[in-house]
């Protein structure tokens, strides 16, 4: 099985977002990773549902929407309507994660849960059957271009064991490079988010292929 690559448009040229989304689609990106930040849960502010809605006609690829907002629950429906396919909330930003995950699925979307680097994986234990995706943060969320936090490789391996044969995607986000990718695949990751590693040069297709290890 080939690992999925979800280029993060946080590293794209914001003045040409539609064009950038089409370019990563043509370059073979599997999902479009969209980082939503509120300036409160994380120290940065990015985009909201209006921009996601405007980008929707530019690609048929799934939108992998990463909500770094607190609270998330009151806004989930807005992101579903804007065209998200995966909606991921943070374990640290929601008092009622179980309810949020149920809400995401009730809107016909795939439900994701993200864990910050310091959050232990046991928070997943009673939620596994509500999850379509687990997003392991391998940087502290807020910015692209940070360095990969090594301890998260072991967390990925532990989560892989917890997942068993459930059809849950195990995605890693932050500081992923072509050098680090093979170890994460070995640990059981099925998808990578990549911002700087994809957008660092104009050869998006080459950069995506390098992350896949081809
Ligand atoms: C960080 C975001 C990431 C970020 C990844 O808070 O969640 O998706 O864009 O960018 P790189 O790959 O540059 O670390
Ligand atoms: Zn992200």
UniProtKB/TrEMBL annotation:
It comes from the Bacteria. Pfam families: Ribul_P_3_epim. Catalyzes the reversible epimerization of D-ribulose 5-phosphate to D-xylulose 5-phosphate. The active site is at residues 35, 173. Pathway: Carbohydrate degradation. Substrate binds at residues 8, 66, 142-145, 173-175, 195-196. Belongs to the ribulose-phosphate 3-epimerase family. One of its GO terms (cellular component) is cytoplasm. GO terms for molecular function: D-ribulose-phosphate 3-epimerase activity; metal ion binding. Keywords: Carbohydrate metabolism, Cobalt, Isomerase, Manganese, Metal-binding, Zinc. Its cofactor is Fe(2+); Zn(2+); a divalent metal cation; Co(2+). It comes from Magnetospirillum molischianum DSM 120. A divalent metal cation binds at residues 33, 35, 66, 173. It is an enzyme of class 5 (isomerase). Its EC number is 5.1.3.1. Binds 1 divalent metal cation per subunit. It catalyses: D-ribulose 5-phosphate = D-xylulose 5-phosphate. This is Ribulose-phosphate 3-epimerase. GO terms for biological process: pentose catabolic process; pentose-phosphate shunt.
């Amino acid at each position: 099985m080939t690992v999925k690559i979800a280029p993060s448009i946080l590293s794209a040229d914001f003045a040409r977002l539609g064009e950038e989304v089409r370019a990563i689609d043509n370059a073979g990106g599997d999902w479009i990773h969209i980082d939503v930040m509120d300036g409160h849960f994380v120290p940065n502010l990015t985009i909201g549902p209006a921009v996601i809605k405007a980008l929707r006609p530019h690609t048929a690829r799934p939108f992998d929407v990463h909500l770094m907002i607190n609270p998330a629950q009151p806004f989930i429906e807005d992101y579903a309507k804007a065209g998200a396919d995966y909606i991921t909330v943070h374990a640290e930003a929601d008092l009622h994660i179980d309810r949020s995950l149920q809400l995401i699925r009730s809107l016909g979307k795939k439900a994701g849960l993200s864990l910050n680097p310091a959050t232990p994986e046991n928070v997943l234990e009673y939620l596994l059957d509500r999850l379509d995706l687990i997003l392991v943060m391998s940087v502290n969320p807020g910015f692209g271009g940070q360095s990969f936090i090594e301890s998260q490789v072991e967390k990925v391996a532990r989560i892989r064991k917890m997942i068993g044969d459930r059809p849950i995607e195990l995605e890693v986000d932050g500081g992923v490079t072509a050098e680090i990718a093979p170890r994460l695949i070995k640990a059981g990751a099925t998808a990578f988010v990549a911002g700087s590693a994809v957008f660092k040069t104009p050869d998006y297709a080459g950069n995506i292929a390098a992350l896949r290890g081809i």
